[in-house]
Amino acid sequence: MRTALAAAVALLTSAALLGASPVEAGPAPLPDRMADTGGGDQLITAVAPDTGSTTGTVTWWDRRGGRWRKAGSAPARFGARGLVEGRSRKQGTNTTPTGLYDLPYAFGIKAAPRGTTYPYRPVRKSSWWCQDNASKAYNRWSDPRAADCRAGQAEHLVTYPVQYAHALVVGFNYDKPVRGRGAGIFLHVNGSGPTAGCTSVPEKAMRTLLTWVNPAARPHIAVGTERGATAVTRY
What we know:
Blueprint: H1 2-17, E1 42-48, E2 55-64, E3 67-77, E4 83-85, E5 96-102, E6 106-108, E7 120-122, E8 128-130, E9 140-142, E10 154-156, E11 167-169, E12 186-189, E13 199-201, H2 203-212, E14 220-225
Parallel strand pairs: 1-14, 4-5, 6-7, 12-13
Antiparallel strand pairs: 1-2, 2-3, 5-14, 6-11, 8-9, 8-10, 11-12
């Protein structure tokens, strides 16, 4: 008993000498431990235990007064074949690409939740996402579907009423698309199980995220694992 009490006193004394409380002396918030957060004041982290996982946690963070603060979190799902380094990912592998990405815009079959300020595109019957490597519209929203984008190599967005009720486009392979690396990577609503390479969360969480993201805060998403070569802290 005396040993435990002495240890507790020593901890409190040490924290006081350092000008911090024991709570403040704990691990820094995840964004503070990352190599890069995108330079904005909002960040979404999507973290799995390891590359073989199909589940994990999505957390969203605000930076206020120079400090990152947790704004919310939700259970997440990843690709049916886990996660893989984004720079070496191959299309059609059902893997979620790791890395740090921007969020170009949102879209949805349902109307944007009240309070949404992020650019939001309504899905119509003519809305497609082109995944055809031979098309000029590769990895782009196509409405109507581009003539050179084969229907069998594209997602007809309206046919996914659950998953695409609401979604955020993840900027993976987006600015300068590399053919064969992958197309149509989103943060969207949960389906019945793991995804084909996206990250998904419950619909309530997705709606919360859409009212939280602020274009002026330049939000990004960091996808990774708890440790190893694809640790989220490396991005």
